C-alpha cells in the first residue's frame, strides 16, 4: 500500500482528498492504481486520495471520472473548480464570435 500510495499521490506536487458519490467497487473500475487510493466510506460513497501536476489538471481529471464529488481538501481546489466552471459558462453564454468581420479583414 505504501508504494501504491507513493506512486499515485506522492509523486505529484498537488494533492487532494475527494468524496466520490459512488461505491468504492464502482470507482475502482474507473480509477487505476496510479490514479489514486480509494477508501470505503459507505455503500454508495468513497474517498479518493490523489495527486496531479497542478490543481487545474486535478479538476480535469475529476471531471473526466463522470462521477459526482465533493472536495474534502485542499480548499483551493474548490476555487479552481469554480474558476473553470465560470470559464465554461462564459463560453456557453455567448452567441459565439462574429468571425465574418475578422475574416474580411484578413
Keywords:
106 residues; alpha+beta; 5 helices; disordered N terminus
Description:
- This protein has helices at residues 2-10, 24-28, 55-65, 75-93, 99-105; strands at 14-20, 37-42, 45-52, 69-73.
- The protein has 106 residues and is an alpha+beta fold.
- It has a four-stranded antiparallel sheet with strand order 2-3-1-4.
> What does the main sheet amount to?
4 strands, antiparallel
Radius of gyration over alpha carbons? 18 Å
Number of helices: 5
Structural class: alpha+beta
Mean pLDDT value: 86
Order of helices and strands: HEHEEHEHH
The fraction of residues assigned to DSSP E strands is: 15-25%
**Rough outline:** elongated
Question: What percent of the residues sit in helical stretches (DSSP H or I)?
Answer: 40-55%
Number of strands: 4
In terms of per-residue confidence, which ranges show pLDDT below 50 for 5 or more consecutive residues?
A: 1-7
What distance lies between the first and last C-alpha atoms, to the nearest angstrom? 59 Å
Walk across the major sheet and give the strand order: 2-3-1-4
